[in-house]
Fold this protein.
Amino acid sequence: MRPFSLLILSSFFLLPLQADEQTEQPIIVKAERFEREYPKSTSSILKIDEKTIQESGAGNVADLLKKQAGLNLFTSGAFGKASSLFLRGTSNRHTLILIDGVRVTDLTAIGGGARLEFLNTSDIESIEILKGSQGVLYGAEAIGGVINITTKGRLNHQARAQVGSFGQMGLSGNTGHRKDDHLILFNFSTESSTGISSFNEKKTVNAEADGHETSTLKLKASTKWKNSEVGIIGRYQDSFSEFDNSSRDVRGNETNYETSLIGAYWKKSLHNLLNLKLNGEWRQVKSNSLVGTTNYIYEGENRRLELNNLSYIGNSIELASGLSLEEEVAVALDSELRDAIGRERLSLYSHLRYERAGYFSELGGRVEKVQSVETKGLYRLALGKSFGNFTLKAHQATGFKVPSLYQTFSNIGNRNLKVEDSISQELSLLYQEGNLSSEISLFRIRYTNFVDYDSSSNRYVNLGAQENRGLEWEGSLRYQSFNFRLGSNFLRAYNPNTGSYALRRPRVRFNGNVRYQLRSNLYLDLEGLYVGSRNDTNQVRMPSYLTFDTSIGYTESRDKFLLQVKNIMNREYEEIRNFGTPDRNLLLTWERSFQ
């Protein structure tokens, strides 16, 4: 029997089991602007809490997300190499990444995606993944969804150290000071490895190891008085990574990536109708890549000012509204962007929710004016109904993505590129009872004017339409000393005009985790991931692969220990054609709380 067939059967066997009487705490989500229990949300949202992040052992966000349900994430080699995120089959540039409400879009990237492999997990409190178009709530870049990262906002004195195979090393710490309503938090982290060859070393001889190193400093401070709060966040990151191309092992290819971020906010509650929040943010990115003897140097800067208001009208109506002004500037010293090219955008949105007697509905709209681009209007309509332990919800939303400055103005860019437009639909059914949870979602995302590189003309062009249809299922259960988590994706991402399938979007994917709690302070984990066959460059069909990881976690007073054995079956596989993945390897994590 195929591995994925076993996972399907096991998911059905989960449902008849009787969950423990002790009920899990409700999941609270806040990425839809208002905080609410998850069954009352109108989007499919995957929330990864702090405990799950810690127990994953993942040093960066890319590694953390690889085994989460509802998305595919592949890297061009292991240990800090470039990641490509496909949320519901959309491209990397179609998912908006936020850290504490500040956008971390990489303006130096060709498509304007985010470098998830460089985001350290040591100071992350939670991650919420909103699936489907969120253009009304968050604007452009959210065709596929939003990944909302919240860093730790409470005082804790903590240290973490990691050591593992292939020269893996990590060190991080959190500390701070609180006095009355005044709080200051500080975090530092560093992660490195000697790595393996990015190009699959089994396809060559004498391949060199491609290492990486990332260091991050973060400062977060806030103060409260009466009904007001003021806060600031500062973040600096410096990363280095060696890499290869997809045809051979290359010595000397390397990337230096540096980013600085400053965000500030002011919150004031005046009335149920006036709960104001003013955000200001500034972000700068510098990237220097050496490929052979050529340096590719890019610089980008983003400034954004946003005013939001949350209104509560009685017990049944919520209204979120806002106004934002944004400017992005980019320079690419190897192309026609030698002089800074900028673009401004002005945006206004409003989103209304009505809830009564188990029914809830939402209607929202956004108008966004982008410099040198037509004014775009978006809408979102959502309906839901709770009955007993079930919640049925559906939504339809539109979105768009403006071509990046590089795609438009570089020496392989195209000033005639059209804006990518999208429409997204979703229908989902959620069941929760005690410690049993199960959710199944049907979705469809269609976008036109799809932008991609055309090798025949050596420039970026609009290639036509793209359509993603799929089904997702995720379930979890705690039964006696066991915890089960299972997820599955069925995806068809293709060009409806030509019938050709999009690259690197597997049609079938399964993930599963079983935990056995030996004692209150000792547990064993087994995690599996099956990724089905998929197209890669030159329409080469990549074979499916199945991997297993295991770990043992132990807690003693203030200390936590985690020993992980990854790829325990020592499988040989490729996530992306001709790029290598590690053999069986170990990672040991120690964490201590000083409170």
In short: Confidence is low (pLDDT under 50) at residues 1-23. The helical segments are 3-14, 50-56, 61-65, 135-138, 405-409. Residues 3-593 form a domain with the Maltoporin; Chain A fold (CATH 2.40.170.20).
